[in-house]
Design goal:
Helix 11 packs parallel to helix 12. The chain is α/β, with parallel strands linked by helices. Helix 6 links the parallel strand 5 and strand 6. The protein is 43% helix and 16% strand. The relative contact order is 0.18. It starts with a helix and ends with a helix. The structure holds 1,3-dihydroxyacetonephosphate and iron/sulfur cluster. 1,3-dihydroxyacetonephosphate binds next to loops.
Length: 301
Amino acid sequence: MDQTQIGQRVAQLKEERNAVILAHNYQVPEVQVLADFLGDSLGLSQQAAATDADVIVFCGVHFMAQTAKLLSPSKTVLMPDPGAGCPMADMITAEQTRQFKAEHPGAPVVAYVNTTAEVKAESDICCTSANAVKVVESLDADTVLFIPDANLASWVARHTDKEVIAWGGYCPTHVRINPQTVEFMHEEHPGAVFIVHPEARPEVLDIADEVASTGGMVKFAREADAKQIIVGTEEGLVYRLRRENPDKTFYIVPHTVCPNMKKTTPDKVLASLENMQYDVDVAQDVADGARRAVERMLEVS
Ligand code: 13P
Ligand code: SF4
């Protein structure tokens, strides 16, 4: 089947199943165009909470689909490729979270949404890169524990008077962005501005014109006067940026592929709807605690 035939069959099945397709901004272009909603982690969770569809086909990585399931427990949540994980989310376990808390009694735990449901259940509140500062500021505490991303934690620490104690996790894709590459790209494209995701290293954020979630970057690209933009995040985002801003030029920092975000393909999306696979579930003993942390975040956002 070619892309057009897949698109037609997907549309048919979506109607039959009363399904909606949610996709993250890092998905490959041919999956992005199949989506009913394309967004960042925060937008996708808000969408998952609001939809009245019976079935959510989630094109992203596992923690995102799991979050959708937490927010819509009565709906069927499917992942076209259940092997799409997030290495950063696996950098802290529930047991390590409990130990971290025991080392810092009384300090609330802010869990980046890039965590497993088991870790969320051990946390006080979740955040995404779009609302991390707001979430930390909302807490009635002078010291907070921030897991698992040390780079996002250090970005938050720059914007709050609270003490932020970070776990040492990182995103293998974003830490590859280095300041020398960005400087080189500036020389190649004089006048371009540089936007970057807060999962990049602090020395990269230091030279950025804008630090934002992928949704924040979409907004920046739309509203900025700049006609040339160097983009420091996973390369999938530039397809959307180019499509929505044909009058602007985007240069992606090289070597910024998240292999897990590329696992979902149109034929897997079709198979997912055709066979109702692969079901995402959250164990009952952690679901309530994890949901509380995600819902608390949505109240703040
Ligand atoms: P956003 O929430 O900014 O889309 O980021 C998700 C992510 O996984 C970044 O690597
Ligand atoms: Fe995880 Fe990084 Fe991939 Fe985002 S880009 S899903 S944080 S590995």
